[in-house]
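tokens incoming
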């Protein structure tokens, strides 16, 4: 029987920050595609909706980053 993995949170902040950066880049690339390609109104709307979901994800990532930073600070004091 395998032991459960220890909760390794040592790189969570950096990983989440990278996820925010990648998601922002995806938003930018999607916007450039929408602006520079001959897309239908429906395709442009799909891009807009995906970007809205991406913005919501960024907000959640940023909340997690704050939680992880607080966890780190709390554990450094111990």
């Amino acid at each position: 029987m395998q032991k459960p993995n220890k909760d390794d949170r040592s790189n969570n902040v950096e990983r989440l920050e990278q996820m925010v950066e990648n998601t922002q880049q995806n938003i930018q690339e999607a916007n450039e595609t929408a602006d520079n390609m001959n897309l239908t109104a429906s395709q442009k709307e799909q891009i807009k909706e995906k970007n809205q979901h991406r913005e919501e994800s960024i907000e959640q990532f940023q909340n997690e980053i704050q939680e992880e930073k607080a966890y780190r600070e709390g554990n450094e004091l111990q």
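note: Residues 15 and 67 are 13 Å apart (CA to CA).
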